[in-house]
């Protein structure tokens, strides 16, 4: 069977909806002195060859935390980022629901090939990289406005990455129920945040690239993405500075980190990272 015939057969069966059933969320810190080179490699090559060209990865967006945004992060002692300011670039990708296993086969294969062909930039640290399964999305405006499958294409002005750890699976399930039913709708009402997507991490395969560490918190962690219609700096104190208390006694918030979108094809913000 030719490659072309194989593609035809793969497309003819299996899920092909638009729901973001899975996500890749990756926060990376380029090593000092490598900021410009890393940004150009990611913008010009890796975003496409290592992500968007893959089957079933149907949307993506890059975000950046300038130094002033990094300094808004909490808590000071984070289980996710040490120091909490580490990880100035964030990339988010949606994967078609039900296609995670097929996508992972491709991504492991292509990244091994990219590494062999010297198309992987090694002067960087993966601070927080994980594939995640979608749990729920809560909307500020109900049925009006963009849906979660639009979120990485809609021109949102900012994003907040929030990571919460619970004591165990039962505690996580209880917290998720409370967040979806009460806490997130209350916080979204009248705020610049249009939606919050909630994910839980899934383990990486054993044949992953060696520079990517295994996912932590598979049974205990929730990852929230807050999509903002305003620059987070303009509304942080009034709306989001207290997100560190979101979980209450049900868990510990390990990271609240605001970002703004990068401008594709440019080095905008690179000079403001340090």
Description:
- With about 270 residues, the protein is α+β, with helices and mostly antiparallel strands.
- It is about 30% helix and about 30% strand.
- The protein has six helices and eight strands.
- It has helices at about 5-10, 35-50, 65-70, 100-115, 170-190, 230-240, and strands at about 20-30, 55-65, 90-95, 125-140, 160-165, 195-200, 220-230, 250-260.
- Strands 1-3-2-8-5-7-6-4 form an eight-stranded antiparallel barrel.
- The protein starts with a helix and ends in a 13-residue tail after the last strand.
- The mean pLDDT is about 95.
Largest sheet: 8 strands, antiparallel, barrel
Look at the helices and sheets and give the structural class: alpha+beta
Strand content: 25-35%
Based on CA inertia axes, which overall geometry fits? globular
The rounded Rg comes to 18 Å
* Contiguous runs where pLDDT drops below 50 for at least 5 residues: none
